[in-house]
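Query form — protein Alpha/beta hydrolase

QUESTION: What is the three-dimensional structure of this chain?
INPUT:
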Amino acid sequence: MTTAPSRHPAPPPAPDLPPGPRVSRADHRTQVVPLTAGDGTRLTLVHVRGPAEPWRGPVLLVHGAGVRAELFRPPTPRTLVDLLLEDGWDVWLLNWRASIDLDPVPWTLCDAAVHDHPAAVEHVLAATGAAGLKAFVHCQGSTSFTMAAVAGLLPRVDTVVTNAVSLHPVVPRFSAFKIRRLAPLLEHLTPHLSPAWAYRSAGNLSKVVRRVVDLTHPECDNLVCRMVSFTYGSGHPALWSHRNLDRATHDWITGEFAEVPMTFFAQMRASIDAGHLVGVREHPELPADLGVGVPRTTARFSFLAGADNRCFLPESQVRSHAFFTRHQPDAGHTLHVLPGYGHLDVVFGRHAWRDTHPVVLEELHR
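ANSWER: The structure tokens for Alpha/beta hydrolase are given below.
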């Protein structure tokens, strides 16, 4: 696997919290804003403001598959949203069609790229009066958002910080086996998979899956944590390191994962086989050569990859960085391989405020 040196080696020991005034969840002023996607699907934006008025522009945070916007506000003492508010940003969180806070639909990345992200960007720009915005996008929020950008559908987005995967999904060997061999069998039995089957049965298949996970993932006492590893990757666990999560966050994830449609897994299977994202629904707005042709965006991209990611290998972001740099050598695209981190602990690790969130802030400032 290709590796890339990180400009951010593991930091020395530090106190759990920095000194000085801080924003916390108690300081958040939250407004949930209804949003209609281009095809009529109901979405929401969560507008979060702190005790002080923002003095920087808007930043849009986009979650992954089968979670929700609250992904960015875990029960850690310091969250990415807190740091962004302290830094003066006008923070918006998008619940796109993959959100568990919305009615489940059999979505694809193409649907989100064409209908969800352009609508969200235009709403935020209209609401704030800003000329452009920046985005921090994670996992399938990242793949679909990057699809929209390279298709020229997000011309007023000037900076994208993407975590875990963007245009070139590369997965561990066992994950490839599951998505190529197991997922097609499950498509005939269920319209979706759900880590919430850990505590909420949905027919006999959910009980069988729960029993299989119980037998094959003995790594902790949180069955949702173990179901997440079965659903999304390879490892024990697959999406984070237990040493990076505090007890409150490890308990909190129990309510933060639910349905992911088999339509998504089918598209990801085709993309893994192709070596880059491919379209699976007819959307003339999207080019047929996603991840191959020249990107139709002037946005600067920063690619983050946890060195220990067992959902999407760091090679995913290495390839996407190389792709953008090859086509846009003077754009200033950057790559950060983050030691000691995996997939989601980049967002809600106990020390993410000191290890990974500063990288996000640095790239938003560039």
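ADDITIONAL NOTE: DSSP finds twelve helices and ten strands in the chain.
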